[in-house]
Hints:
By secondary structure, this protein is an alpha/beta fold. Helix 5 packs across helix 6 and helix 7 crosses helix 8 (375-387). The protein has helices at residues 149-155, 167-171, 187-202, 220-228, 255-269, 284-290, 350-360, 375-387, 395-406, 408-421, 455-459, 469-485, 522-528, and strands at 19-22, 25-28, 30-32, 35-42, 65-67, 113-118, 126-132, 158-162, 208-218, 240-244, 329-334, 430-435, 439-441, 444-449, 504-509, 512-518. It is built from 13 helices and 16 strands. The N and C termini lie far apart (52 Å).
Amino acid sequence: MDRKYGCPVFGTVTEDAPVVMTKYGRILGFTRDKVAIFKGIPYAGPAGGKGRFLEPADVIPWEGTRDCTKNGFYAMQNGVSIGADPGPLAAYYKGKDVNSTGELETQGEDCLVLDILTPGIDNKKRPVVFYIHGGGFATGSGTMVAAADPFCREEDVVVVGVNHRLNIFGYLYLGGLSEKYKGSGSAGMMDLVKALAWVRDNIAAFGGDPENVTIMGESGGGMKVSTLMVMPAAKGLFHKAIVESGSGPIGLNTIERSEKMTETVLQNLGLTHDSWEEILTLPAEKLLDAMKNLGPMGFNPTADNVNIPDLTDSGYRFGNAAYSADIPLLVGASEDESGLFAPIDETMSWDGLCDRLEKNGLGAMFSPVKKELSKEKVQEIVKVFRDANIKNDSPFQTFVKITSLYGVLAGGAYAHAMEREGSEEFKAPVYLYSNAYDSARPDDIRYGFAFHTCDLPLQMRIVQRDQDDWISRIYARAWAAFMRSGDPSTEKYPWPAFTTKKKETMVFDNNGMTGLSDDPYREMREAFGL
């Protein structure tokens, strides 16, 4: 039998209803094409009731066999996760029901659950990828992994997806009101630490290696990965990290800023410092209502110096070496990040593009600042992008590329790699990539962009269109290689590490994994003055 990675030959589970004994009790799963799937496994105690705003409690053991064939709760939030939305994003799953059993997800405070997919319930020590979902720190769920069984079968890896507390439930800072709640502003991140500890203690029973765990996230998930890399409690619980389109500064929520947000929440609820404890028993829906005027992504982890250190005076924006100097990092972004969000404008002309940039400046899409531009500077930037245009992009597509590469989602990956490699404190390598492969925009498949998050399903073999299968296989091979060894090189595509002297960047585009380019976006970045 051909046992090469990339071939669907690693599934070994033959039982229709596999059972695994965890540290807390037996669980029942189901099998799809020789990959065992377990859903809604509790990794901590109840997060509602007396557990609200506190750090996660230990799992309560159970008797008998727990049914883990259906979804657990996903976090309370305004909106729905991918698995609860039958709308446009369902196109990612190519007709496959991501929930496997047909039921949609439901929200609940007791959302501290994870899903596991494994190609073998045995003593083999497979690489483990711990996927952390995006949606900022406010929305989303880990459900997507339920469709990643081809990745398990072809690359012989164990996949874990995790749900955790979000928004007001995970990051409302109450430390100024009670010492008991001094860690409430980072409770959602401590959920992830708790889940990683559960993986360390239990994943061997699923054929995974607790000494080879890669944490991986896109967008908000990437920000959570970066945050875990500075947390003392997370040290030793993972061994590699992947940050995708999520290289944002860590610890932007100082205690002072978080306390101001808490004051707003109390005012919205009609509470005072004398009556604040009523927030512990209010219905969850009232808490969601209380944060609506704080913006969709208003809550972030608090740099409380309890669980998350304040990096203000450290000289670092994306991490520090105290807890992750030896962690190999794979980091990157997509070329057309804002192509998922920008309203399509088929009528935009080159003059119209210049007028829009001159009027709105840079930073309209995912940048921390709005950069004002003169007419001359706009024309200079547009000329650089037109000269570098190898895809015959339209004016609107060029607008997308300009706003994307300036913003933090795409531009942050380069800065992240530069900061890490520019410090002698970091010992492990960093690998930088750019996704330039055009995927069909979910809400209108006539338009193709390398848009925000489109690379994630490709990497995990959750193919949107049959014509994307070839690039998906290339991506998955490189990502699995990194999970195995800390080096994304494959037999066909060697991938040297990024350094400040030679800024090797692997580009994935419409021609495939096109090889390495030394700082491929230099002229565009310099046109911005970055």
